Recover the amino acids of this structure.
């Protein structure tokens, strides 16, 4: 073999070795890309201190993977979104946001969705950060205010000044609750609340306690917040009488009003407009007068004396004396009574106010709520799931109708009812169509209901009987 040929063979062998090394390196790189998280997580597991949560450890592994892999492949955004939905701790979300830009973009909306502001110092720092992040020269991704959806504001830390500084930075706010805990002179007032609807038009839930709301503020709320579904006004004084008329363009589903003065005649004008909201599922009225509650349950139309006598027992029906001095029940009178009953029921059903989707009803001062007015209301609202009534005067007859007409009823609270009996309540609990769904029944200060009739009650005292679902099921088995 000539020297020239030997040199050529060495070169060929060297090229083959280089190609082999390159292929081996590529295979190793591909294998490492597919298995990096598993292998490297084992290596760095020893370096993670004890007591660190699983989310923090996973974030550390992922960050290590992204920082040391040359390809830096991106995980599908959909997968990361699904995973982070299960992360509930704030410090874990913060750790995830430090992995890379992709994790930061996905974690930030969850991290800032509902910030907790517990003291004055945090509040001032928070508003300063919002103002700085909204500067035009900064990137839009740094504007954390657009991620905020829910805020609970404590009276002790907030004034009109801070509230007005906050509003321009939270245009996508959906839920706002202004809590009243302590008496202070400087607080959030109508002076700043009037700007809330225009600056936060995406509100879906608003809860305000102990504030005076002007006609202009209510008008702005109805004009700008066309997505408002839940409204709670606790002891808000001087509400305009056309409050609900001004909110007619809001698709209200839940309404809570706690009146300041129960005897204020303007309250009747507010309640008179409730039928506007046919989407109502929750209706709660506190500190109401008897007349106000009666306006929700219109009495049946006035009927003739014969119709009134139809409510009496059969032996009390009017009698007529024949020429033969024999006493008998008048057939014509009975016929007219039956016609009057049918007409009265039909008119009563037409007169009752109906919210076809109503699921929760909570009322106080129901002293004049009797079977004649409550039974038509029950029949017109078969979707009721929770009933809470105080001082009602309906009898076991209403319980029997509830047992048949309300198959979805889950919670029942009757307080100071002087007409229902323990036997009637037991029949309702055992034979009612709602029994599979009933989870809680509370009877408070009902004199004709004895605690001895409900041996499995969770709270079995002379003035209060609480029946949870196990007690109701046990009562059904006993009967």
């Amino acid at each position: 073999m000539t020297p020239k040929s030997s040199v050529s063979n060495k070169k060929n062998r060297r090229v083959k070795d280089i190609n082999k090394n390159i292929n081996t390196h590529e295979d190793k790189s591909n294998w490492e890309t597919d298995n990096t998280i598993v292998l490297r997580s084992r290596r760095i597991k020893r370096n993670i201190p004890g007591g660190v949560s699983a989310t923090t450890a996973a974030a550390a592994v992922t960050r290590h993977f992204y920082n040391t892999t040359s390809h830096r492949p991106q995980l599908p955004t959909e997968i990361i979104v699904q995973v982070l939905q299960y992360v509930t701790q704030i410090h874990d979300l913060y750790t995830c946001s430090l992995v890379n830009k992709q994790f930061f973009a996905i974690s930030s909306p969850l991290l800032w969705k509902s910030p907790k502001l517990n003291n004055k110092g945090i509040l001032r720092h928070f508003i300063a950060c919002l103002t700085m992040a909204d500067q035009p020269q900064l990137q839009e991704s740094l504007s954390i205010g657009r991620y905020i959806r829910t805020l609970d504001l404590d009276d002790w830390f907030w004034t009109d000044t801070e509230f007005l500084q906050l509003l321009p930075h939270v245009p996508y706010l959906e839920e706002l609750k202004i809590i009243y805990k302590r008496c202070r002179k400087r607080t959030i007032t109508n002076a700043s609340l009037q700007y809330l609807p225009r600056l936060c038009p995406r509100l879906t839930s608003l809860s305000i306690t102990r504030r005076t709301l002007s006609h202009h503020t209510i008008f702005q709320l109805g004009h700008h917040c066309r997505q408002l579904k839940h409204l709670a006004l606790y002891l808000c004084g001087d509400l305009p009488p056309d409050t609900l008329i001004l909110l007619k363009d809001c698709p209200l589903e839940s309404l809570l009003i706690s009146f300041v003065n129960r005897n204020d005649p303007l309250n009747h004008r507010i309640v008179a407009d409730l039928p506007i909201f046919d989407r109502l599922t929750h209706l709660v009225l506190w500190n109401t007068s008897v007349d106000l509650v009666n306006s929700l349950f219109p009495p049946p139309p006035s009927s003739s004396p014969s119709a009134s006598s139809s409510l009496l027992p059969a032996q009390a029906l009017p009698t007529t004396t024949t020429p033969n001095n024999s006493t008998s029940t008048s057939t014509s009178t009975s016929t007219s009574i039956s016609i009057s009953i049918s007409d009265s029921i039909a008119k009563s059903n037409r007169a009752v106010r109906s919210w076809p989707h109503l699921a929760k009803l909570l009322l106080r001062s129901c002293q004049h709520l009797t079977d004649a007015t409550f039974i038509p209301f029950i029949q017109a609202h078969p979707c009721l799931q929770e009933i809470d009534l105080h001082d009602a005067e309906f009898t076991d007859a209403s319980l029997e109708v509830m047992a048949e007409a309300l198959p979805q009823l889950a919670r029942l609270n009757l307080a100071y009812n002087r007409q229902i009996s323990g036997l009637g309540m037991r029949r309702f609990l055992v034979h009612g169509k709602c029994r599979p769904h009933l989870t809680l029944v509370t009877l408070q200060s009902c004199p004709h209901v004895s605690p001895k009739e409900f041996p499995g009650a969770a709270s079995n005292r002379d003035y209060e009987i609480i029946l949870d679902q196990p007690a109701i099921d046990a009562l059904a088995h006993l009967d």
